[in-house]
Design brief:
By secondary structure, this protein is of the alpha/beta class. It has 7 helices and 11 strands. Helices cover 31% and strands 14% of the residues.
Length: 368
């Protein structure tokens, strides 16, 4: 049977449909690469003119400065936030970027600074953070931009420390902030006995750090009551083997020259936030203090917790955990938001209990 010949108009129509179909399929397959490319500054970092440095004597350089909850403890808490600036024309975000600050206020502060509110006065500096794009590529330019942010972290820490000549100290950071805390402790705190003796604990949340790079004077927290030590982990769902392997393969850690280099087989730090200790022992869900979605909550409002819900264990240096399936703990937001720190905290109440416990130990050991 002879097929009917298509008219010219029909041929054009089918050709157009086929082109549209191919374009839609290409966007579906390469959407992530397309969006990531849109965040690339397209200039070498060496020729990049970064935004002006913040002045930490000014209130504008702090998202929070000495903020206390009604029942807060005696500690001074220095907190470095995670990545909130997407990128585009800049490798590093300027202070006061409205979109980045909105994400910081709505998501990061309530979910990740919130667990430390009971410990004491929280100070949270703004800094010229490396963009989200720098965490999606291993290019040297991206590494340089991430290392550039350290100068602001150090300047903010020194200004904060000058305001706290005595008393217990807690250092905490999430994702990029945790990465900067890692270097700050090793280069600024570890070799200063006066400061080191005041450290209750250091928290490096959802970041990979090499165990061998930790300073011997500020080691990983071996037990739930250790003080002057580091609680750090990088978390992946226990069914997501691919993500765990990618996390290790793409991890960058500081070397002695202040450069970010590949992990290269070094053991990642994993202190289980539920048990508060190192080791590979599985921690059952019944010991989990509580997860929370605090996004959008005003400061000082404690979120509702789901406790006894998340089982955890350290596997090859990654904290593997069971997933929560309720609506509040699903990934939301646009493509960029889903690649930032999660918009909930699976270990909110665990961190809160951990820092309170270690602070009690510190106070008891420093009682006159």
């Amino acid at each position: 049977m002879k097929l009917p010949r298509l008219t010219f108009r029909q041929t054009i129509g089918w050709t157009g449909f086929f082109i549209v179909f191919l374009l839609a399929a290409a966007v579906a397959v390469w959407r992530g690469d397309i969006l990531k490319a849109g965040l690339d500054p397209q200039i070498p970092f060496q020729t990049y003119d970064p935004p002006p440095a913040p002045n930490y004597a000014s209130a504008d350089a702090w998202a929070m400065k000495e903020v206390r909850a009604p029942t807060s403890g005696p500690a001074a808490v220095f907190f470095l936030h995670s990545t909130t600036f997407d990128g585009g024309a800049d490798w590093n975000g300027q202070i006061g970027d409205s979109r980045a600050d909105a994400y910081l206020d709505r998501v990061v502060i309530p979910n990740y600074a919130g667990p430390f509110a009971r410990a004491g006065a929280i100070s949270l500096p703004r800094y010229r953070q490396a963009s989200l794009y720098t965490r999606l590529t291993l290019r040297d330019d991206a590494r340089d931009a991430r290392a550039f942010a350290y100068a602001d972290a150090l300047a903010a820490f020194n200004a904060w420390l000058a305001d706290h000549p005595t008393g217990p100290l807690v250092l905490a950071g999430v994702e990029q902030g945790g990465e900067l805390i890692d270097r700050l402790v090793r280069e600024r705190v570890a070799n200063d006995p006066a400061v080191r003796s005041r450290i209750v604990a250091v928290y490096m949340i959802d970041v990979i750090a090499a165990v061998e790079n930790l300073a011997p004077t500020v080691p990983a927290c071996a037990t739930a009551t250790s003080i002057g030590c580091v609680v750090g982990w990088s978390q992946v769902g226990d069914q997501n083997e691919g993500a765990a392997h990618r996390r290790l393969r793409r991890a960058l850690v500081w070397d002695n020259a202040g450069r970010l280099v590949e992990l290269n087989g070094r053991a990642p730090l994993c202190v289980n936030p539920v048990s508060g200790a190192t080791g590979a022992a599985a921690v059952p869900a019944r010991l989990h203090h509580g997860a929370a979605n605090a996004t959008g909550l005003e400061w000082g409002v404690r979120p509702a917790f789901i406790d006894r819900a998340v089982a955890t264990r350290c596997v090859n240096g990654i904290l593997r955990h069971t997933e929560l399936t309720t609506e509040s703990f699903k990934e939301v937001g646009n493509w960029a938001d889903r690649r930032k720190a999660r918009q909930y905290n699976l270990f909110y109440a665990d961190i809160e209990a951990d820092v309170e416990r270690r602070l009690n130990v510190w106070e008891a050991s420093n009682a006159s």
